[in-house]
From TrEMBL:
Keywords: Endoplasmic reticulum, Glycoprotein, Glycosidase, Hydrolase, Membrane, Nucleus, Signal-anchor, Transmembrane, Transmembrane helix
Lineage start: Eukaryota, Metazoa, Chordata, Craniata, Vertebrata
Keyword Calcium appears in the UniProt entry: no
Membrane topology qualifier: Single-pass type II membrane protein
Main location as per UniProt: endoplasmic reticulum
Protein known as: Myogenesis-regulating glycosidase
Subunit structure: Interacts with IGF2; this interaction is required for IGF2 secretion.
Domain of life, per lineage: Eukaryota
Length: 683
């Protein structure tokens, strides 16, 4: 029994040995685990480090949710977030200057960022996100990054810099008539934006591009999709959306813009007629609207001469034909058109005629246009698509069809030769006048290509032609008119919108700008009232301030004549048309010649010469002509003074004062009703 009990209990020494060895074993295992964990951590850290290095390009950091770009000083100047999907970073690799990934959280894709250094001071990044599996939306959100942005499109309510208000879901970035639809993008637009951080972005032509914004998140929303949009995938390809663009970073805002314009924008190939830069153009539109007639046109011309004004040409606007879509004079309103043109020529007047892309269904040309397939058709291609425009219902000419182009051009040539017409005012041309669903002779992947095709019709007449639309049309080399203005003071198509709109279209590469008619169009219910509004005229003070601003634009355009007011207005108008011809036009023509090589604006923002000046980025009521003439018009009612910002440098005012302590503000600088403040750079 004893031995049995002893055997069961074991000796105390033996127990101690077992306990020690267990502890040693545990410690050894723990040590091994720690070493293993350290090795795994080190490997993971090394892999992460390698991955982090892999996901860096020069001054760019990529992660699954987006990328940032820094400038040479290390500050973040550009941020883009991927809104529609995230990258699977394990699918990413780097080969030379190309970073690419093959998967996102929703499947296969083709994603890359290619780094290009085109010159010492510029770094560019080509970015592409192409879905390969699902036909969903691709959306990237670009942050404002506490900088000021410029470019994009003409808008009804135009601010400089861009001021997006509220939350806007992305909508097709295509040309629209913003007079009719105040929330759309305008008739002149390009897929280009520029920031005061010296960064610029250009969206590729192949993208089915939609633009939205968020005031709350301070972002631009760039989206690409085909479904239920006016964009069409190229023939024979699947409708997988692709968002691709170039971002370039430079040393300052002016030099990066110059680089982008030289690299990516077509340039005009000739300067339009110097006469139009020097002498005002006189239009029948605001003064006579569609009630114009032979008698009224002849009286208008004789009044211009009688009051001692010069005229580059008279513009005979809507409506001189019997129906819309015809190319000859209504014999009721113009009983002797040939004699009228002869009289006008004798009196020294050249005349241009209004034209447009519509043929109304009640016009004698409608049947022939249908028969010959000249019109945009409904999707099956069988029948013409009817559209509604501001003068009724009709078909719209299909300028992708060579037959249509020749038919339209031959009618314009006939008018030119029969009456010795000098040129044409090409109205409309926005894609918003195309039907929602349509087909054209040449398929349109991007509907704004229709705008481009229409602008080409102006080429044979470009000496004095006028367009109001532009998309990749900078090389058409004619005058581009900003959309009709209302006779009001504010930012919504009023006097205050002119400088921001002209600066915007200039940044988009359109330099031969017509700022629309002095005083606005005097449309009923869209006119600021005073004692003249009972006569259908714009407010007198508004008209004078508008006239003064127009004198410092590339060209002046009258319709409501100064003598509709009083002798004082006539004298102010004579003074400013002379100032325009003698002071402004020579400088503008010199700059117009340079545009052919550089594409640089004629009308420039203050930051063009004040690149690190935060105040200059925000000024929307002053502008430069070239680098050395600065203009500060009065744009407020009842004011005979204004605050003026002078950038650094030596300036001489139009009154002869010298200022050389800049940058500085001149507060409440006096400017009489018959004056505009302007300053010349003193070298």
């Amino acid at each position: 029994t004893f031995s049995f009990l002893g055997g069961a209990g074991g000796s105390p020494m033996k127990k101690k040995h077992t306990y020690e060895s267990r502890r040693l074993l545990l410690a050894g295992m723990l040590g091994c685990l720690l070493v293993l964990a350290a090795v795994v951590s080190w490997c993971y850290y090394s892999a992460s480090l390698r991955k982090a290095q892999l996901l860096k390009a020069e001054q760019l950091d990529l992660n699954k949710d987006g990328f940032i770009i820094r400038n040479h000083a290390g500050a973040i100047v550009f941020s883009m977030a991927f809104r529609s999907g995230t990258l699977d970073l394990d699918s990413c690799s780097k080969d030379g200057n190309i970073l690419s990934c093959t998967r996102s959280n929703s499947g296969k894709l083709n994603f890359f960022i290619q780094t290009v250094r085109p010159k010492d001071t510029v770094m560019c990044y080509r970015v592409r996100w192409e879905e390969l599996q699902s036909a969903q939306v691709v959306e990237h959100a670009m942050a404002y990054n506490d900088s000021h942005w410029y470019g994009g499109a003409e808008m009804a309510t135009q601010y400089w810099p861009i001021r997006f208000q509220g939350e806007q879901e992305p909508q097709p970035f295509i040309t629209s008539d913003v007079y009719a639809n105040r929330n759309a993008f305008g008739g002149i637009l390009e897929r280009y934006w520029l920031s005061s951080n010296a960064t610029a972005i250009k969206i590729n032509d192949s993208v089915p591009f939609h633009l939205g914004w968020s005031e709350k998140n301070k972002t631009f929303r760039f989206s690409a999709w085909y479904q239920d949009s006016p964009f069409r995938p190229p023939a024979g390809t699947q409708a997988f959306p692709e968002l691709s663009y170039r971002v370039c970073v430079g040393s300052d805002v002016t030099s990066i813009h110059k680089y982008m314009v030289r690299r990516y924008f077509p340039k005009p190939i000739k300067v339009p007629s110097p006469e139009v830069f020097k002498k005002p153009l006189w239009s029948t539109w605001a003064v006579h609207k569609t009630a114009v007639s032979q008698e009224k046109l002849l009286r208008y011309a004789s009044d211009i001469s009688k009051h001692g004004f010069t005229c580059s040409h008279l513009e005979l606007d809507d409506r001189y034909t019997a129906d819309y879509g015809e190319f000859d004079f209504d014999p009721q309103k113009f009983p002797n058109a040939s004699g009228m043109f002869k009289d006008l020529r004798k009196a020294g007047f050249q005349v241009s005629l209004w034209t447009h892309p519509f043929i109304n269904y009640d016009s004698i040309n409608f049947g022939a246009a249908v028969e010959n397939g000249l019109l945009v058709r409904e999707p099956s291609g069988e029948l013409p698509a009817l559209v509604r425009w501001w003068n009724g219902i009709g078909g719209i000419l299909d300028f992708t069809n060579p037959k249509t182009r020749e038919w339209y051009s031959s009618h314009l040539r006939m008018l030119k030769h029969r009456y010795d017409v000098t040129s044409f005012k090409f109205d409309a041309g926005e894609t918003s006048y195309l039907p929602r669903q349509f087909s054209t002779a040449a398929p349109l992947a991007d509907p704004s290509t229709f705008t481009r095709r229409y602008t080409e019709m102006a080429v044979p007449f470009n000496e004095r032609a006028e367009l109001r639309v532009g998309y990749q049309s900078q090389n058409i080399s004619c005058f581009f008119r900003i959309i009709d203005r209302d006779s009001v003071w504010g930012h919504e198509l009023g006097l205050k919108s002119i400088i921001p709109t002209v600066l915007t279209v200039s940044i988009l590469g359109y330099q031969f700008v017509l700022p629309d008619m002095i005083g606005g169009n005097a449309y009923p219910n869209r006119t600021t009232g005073d004692l003249y509004s009972d006569q259908g005229l714009p407010d007198r003070e508004l008209y004078i301030r508008w006239l003064e601003l127009s004198a410092f634009m590339p060209a002046m355009q009258f319709s409501i004549p100064p003598w509709a007011y009083d002798q004082e207005v006539v004298q102010i108008a004579q003074k400013f048309t002379e100032l325009h011809e003698n002071l402004v036009a020579p400088r503008v023509l010199e700059l117009a010649g340079e545009v052919l090589d550089t594409g640089d604006p004629i009308i420039r923002p203050l930051w063009w010469i004040a690149i690190d000046d935060e105040a200059a980025y925000k000024i929307d009521s002053q502008f430069l002509i070239g680098d050395d003439l600065m203009v500060a018009p009065v744009l407020e009612p009842g004011k005979q003074e204004r605050d003026i910002y002078l950038p650094a440098g030596r300036w001489r005012s139009y009154k002869g004062e010298h200022f050389d302590k800049g940058p500085m503000y001149l507060t409440d600088y006096p400017v009489d009703l018959d004056e505009i403040a302007f300053f010349t750079w003193v070298h």
